[in-house]
Amino acid sequence: MQFDAEWLLLALAPFVHTQAIAKLGWLEYVLNTPSMHRVYHARNAQYIDRNYAGMLAIWDRLFGSYVEEDAHEPPVYGIVKPLDTYNPLKASFHEWLAMARDSSRMPDLRSRLAALFAPPDWCARRDAAQIGPGMIATGTCVSENNTEGDFESHKI
């Protein structure tokens, strides 16, 4: 019988999607545990873009994307900015559209690629760096990429 990792991941899915299990000691260094996976699904600023591992925690540790769940900052689940629709197509593709809008507004190829592949708050940080102190930003980035934790549309 051939080993199939996809079936193993499917079998582990209910196990990692629980809040009933806390930390698992030494297994936290090896496997994707419930604690590690809660961080993956969180929208808290310190948890964004962290803990991608599907099965083995070694990859996140190796590539620097591992973050331990903080007992004083429990994960808040969901997307950063709530949707104002129940349309499943918009729910599936809203972020892709926001990224495309961000990229199309950039002045050069390097910035366009960064808008697509840099961390989610790159556009907002870029806009903030381009304005001087006391000036008002024109808000070239799309608010869906906000990672500040406020859920209102805002300009930087």
Strand content: under 5%
What is the CA–CA distance across the termini?
57 Å
Low-confidence stretches: 145-156
Count of the separate structural domains: 2
Main beta sheet strand tally, sense and closure: none
- What is the helix content? 25-40%
The total of beta strands comes to 0
What's the mean pLDDT score? 80
Shape: globular
By secondary-structure content and strand pairing, the structural class works out as mainly alpha
Oligomeric description of these chains = single chain
> What's the tally of helices?
6
Write down the secondary-structure element order: HHHHHH
Radius of gyration: 18 Å
Describe the structure.
With 156 residues, the protein is mostly helical. The protein has two domains: 5-63, no CATH class; 88-145, no CATH class. The chain is built from six helices and no strands. It has helices at 5-16, 34-41, 58-63, 88-104, 109-117, 122-130. α4 packs antiparallel against α5 (109-117).
Secondary-structure blueprint of this entry?
Elements: H1 5-16, H2 34-41, H3 58-63, H4 88-104, H5 109-117, H6 122-130
Helix pairs in contact: 4-5
